[in-house]
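Two proteins were folded this term; both appear here.
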Amino acid sequence: MQPRMILGKPGRSQFRSAAGEDGLVGEKSPLRISGRIPTQFEVTQDLAKWTPQLNRIFWIPGSTDERPVDWKAVTEGLITNAMLDSRNVSTELVLHVRSHFGERAFVACIGANGRWACDRNTDWWTNRNQIANPAIAQRQMTSLLYNEDGTPQVPNDLLNQGELLRWVYQHSVAQKHGLFGLAAHIGPKGGPELDDLPIYDSSDDTHALLIVVVPQGDDLIVYRKRIAIGK
């Protein structure tokens, strides 16, 4: 089973307002399932305008049409402390990733103690809300990036980077408070808090977390892999 997430892009809502016009709504309707569970069924989901949608998919490992990733061939010797300190993913690593995932893939890497690097691809900047309504975008961004005590959930020098990069960082790195003061990650539970998404212990300076994002139709496929840091 590949370690990946699927991020759905904003779609058109099937809701109607009291005035009878399509519009933003505060609550979403439940999923509609047709067919026979667990083998032959379809799920229909309404999406609100200008609102990102995260779909979480769980499955039992078995035969798959997905081509296995040779992570060693993709990354061997290419993820180093020097690269993380520079904040720039090397051209060689980008080429290796794209040779497997395609030319549209973009790459980032997360290291210990707030270090990170990315390929500076403009696709990291995916904030559609800012185009529609900057005020709403700022409110959403604030709630996404800061803890209740006002401290940022991402490194300070990541605050000026693309929204998608910040989102992936926040939901990949375990924050050292609460439950994550005792554990680096927890088992999948599918809850709305998304607290089972973090998989990287930010105190582990011997490994980094490789992030590969692949556009696929209206979705973004996010692959995350823990990789030993080269010398």
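Next, the second protein.
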Amino acid sequence: MDPTLISPPKSTIRKQVWSWVVVGAVDLFVLAGGIAFMTSGHPVAADVFLFAGTVLFLAKFWTWEDAKQQAPFKKWALRISTTLVAIALAISTAVWNHKINSLSSAPREGVSFAGAAGVTPVSSTSAQQATLPQIHPLKPSRIPKKPTISGSSNVPEIIEYATGIMVVANNSSEHMFALRVAVKTNENGASNSYALNTELPPKKPAQLTVGKFEHETTLPPMGTDWGSHWRNAELAYPGCVKVWYFTPTSIALRQVIDHYAAAHLSLPLGDAVGTLHYRAGDPARIMEVTFHLKAVLAKEDACPH
């Protein structure tokens, strides 16, 4: 028989399946799945895919015929060095995966003011929800004390303005009557006005209720400054964005800032101004006093977006 007519031996199906072309394609698919889970907030699933891809690559490398045919020293040097590099890459990727997911998931809960005092843990059945605490409205059991001041100054002092409360000190010897308070941001022009209709006794601070703030949650940083933060929030949650106002030294404002600082995030704050309208003097006159505020963006929890 003519030797040229003899067909070369065909490679087995097992060898074809275990070729670098097939194994490499499958390995890339598995690693791509790990990256997809990593960026979609599923760190555990990402770990499984990444380590599975690493094991598949090492299994193929250790059984590679070309590597087996090397001199013993060179063969083992290649196997050990490749294995160490692959494992180091897998571990560093897993660490990075959990780090970026912990930072991105933490602020999703925001700071929820649900109407009760104190700090409570976030209730969660999902691994992706924040581990930072929810912070409820500051409702002090004691009104901050002010020293007794002699004189007849008819300008009340704003001690505290936070979500749902306002503490005003009447340092004069005469009674005053708080009529209403108006708040407005310097940029974007958001504003609110609340009726107070509360007496301010002389030489005492008084705590006033300012509106209702239930079922709203602060928004995490959505821009590098207040303007971009506001615009992006309006685009993401049209019709649902609210503004909370705080005096710059407010404890409640510090709680909100610290909440995001724990996740290494800087929350943009807006500048705002408040105006207290009150009645004082004899004969009584309607007067006003302005005070500086900081603004924080929030959204309604019932927002469908």
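The chain has two domains: 10-105, 131-300. The radius of gyration is 32 Å. These notes refer to the second protein only.
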